[in-house]
């Protein structure tokens, strides 16, 4: 009898060991899935498997533990190779719009789509360090796109607590500065932003404040009345979102002064910290205190 029990215990122990190893190889925090480019399809749910006091203490230092953030690197470096596919029209509720666009570039040829991917990866690292689960709309390893409607759907499907689409602008040379684009309250067709307009404004204001602080970049001097905020009802990525979402235009790629910053890896590191800090403020409701009730 004792021998049978011992054998059963040994078998259970081996099974436990095999399961634990299998989990470990899959990347318990979803990082490896995201890095392999599976983006929103990556798995989650292994967090919180341990409940020791030490683990709980560690969790308390992670302000975004249990929160999901959707990061959307604007455009795709391969869009330029698929002009017909990205120019097909998709329904954005208020009308039809191109699936996606190639984005802009600096005068020396640094593409917006390269910039947004690099910044998105840095933002992901900064958010994960704060405990967040981060989803991407794409990681540069798809042939093109995704289309703007799918980019919105990614955040909706992930049940994201906040979503941000990263861009840099292509305004005339001499115009400079950054701005955040907020969703206008629209309700037409598949678009209904009435519930997300107010929280998106809080998210956008928080990101505006921390991005400016982290990078020293001035608010755009060519729109938004110098406030660094613009509101639009013609962007599919915002119109079709059901979760709080903003676009960040980090600077004007066509302006020499802004281009110097956007092409600097050191500046992008600061920018990523600014973005992550703003999202953290929004999700922990610190943004109103920081912006002095503006
Ligand atoms: Zn863009």
TrEMBL record:
Molecular function GO labels: N-acetylmuramoyl-L-alanine amidase activity
GO biological process per UniProt: peptidoglycan catabolic process
Pfam families in the cross-refs: Amidase_3 (PF01520)
Alphabetical list of Gene3D superfamilies matching this protein: Zn-dependent exopeptidases (3.40.630.40)
Keyword RNA-binding carried by entry: no
The UniProt record lists the keyword Nucleus: no
Domain MurNAc-LAA: 152-280
Any one GO CC term of the record: outer membrane-bounded periplasmic space
Signal sequence, start to end: 1-22
Top-rank taxon, per record: Bacteria
Residue ranges with Basic and acidic residues bias: 23-45
UniProt-annotated stretches for the region Disordered: 23-84
PANTHER family in alphabetical order: N-ACETYLMURAMOYL-L-ALANINE AMIDASE, N-ACETYLMURAMOYL-L-ALANINE AMIDASE AMIC
Protein name as catalogued: N-acetylmuramoyl-L-alanine amidase
